[in-house]
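Supplementary Text 2. Reproducibility record for the structural model of the 271-residue chain.

All settings were left at their defaults, and a single model was retained for analysis rather than an ensemble. We include the record here because the model underlies the residue-level annotations in Supplementary Table 4.
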Amino acid sequence: MIIQFLDGTTKEIQDYNLKRLFHRIPSLELNHMTESVEGRGNLVVGTQYQQRVITVTFLYIVRDICDYDLLRDELNGLFARDETFYIIFKREHWKRYKVRLAKQLSINPNRRMESFDVEFRMDDLFAESFGTSLDLQNHGEWDADIWGFGSGIDYDTPYNYTFNTNSFVIKNIGNHKIDPRQSTLEITLKGNFGSFVQIKNNTTGDVYRFNNALSSTDTLKLSGIRTLKNSLSAFKHTNHKLITLAPGDNSITVEGGTVNSVVFDFRYLYK
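Retained model, structure tokens:
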């Protein structure tokens, strides 16, 4: 198991005399909101995902009780952090979980070895791919250091996320939608547009509109919920809508002018 911090640095748990015995990742728990309708009983009017907690069972190995004391302090420093961090399980090294410690560590002292559980609260409800869409495009169909079996890649299919046409298909190989309000999605567009730019996901029905001109020297960037023109905020010139990506193929069209280049950069999400 690997710990990855927000600055990109990583720690191997084996460097702390730890061995991961096993881990448990619960399935998504659904909370259905209902309303009572006469003659039809309780109807579901909405569904929310509940929080998920990953439990990892570790075995620590020490030489004596003093060594245990030192290890206990090191583990407090490793896991008890104000900021979130990622955990990566090596058998599924192509995805990572953004977490924080769920509750205080409880490690029984022993002069040789002892197992103990650590609970990690998932800050995001879904695992995300270690690599991005541009990593998949730039490294080809298969890169063993980034991707693995189960990541959703069709090894006979080329993956492109950079286009110079007004119509194209974006492949979301994850099994959950990409919503820029909740996850990483960056769209960078260059082209010639006389008075507006409209991006439509024909698969989801999402329509984003930028009500301003764009010349060949301009760059329009949709970064999360922000709209930037040449690195300056331009959200007020939009229709205040966003583009989301459904799992699978997303048919995209760009209207209002001619696309010189458009790039979709995001991480895939897994339930």
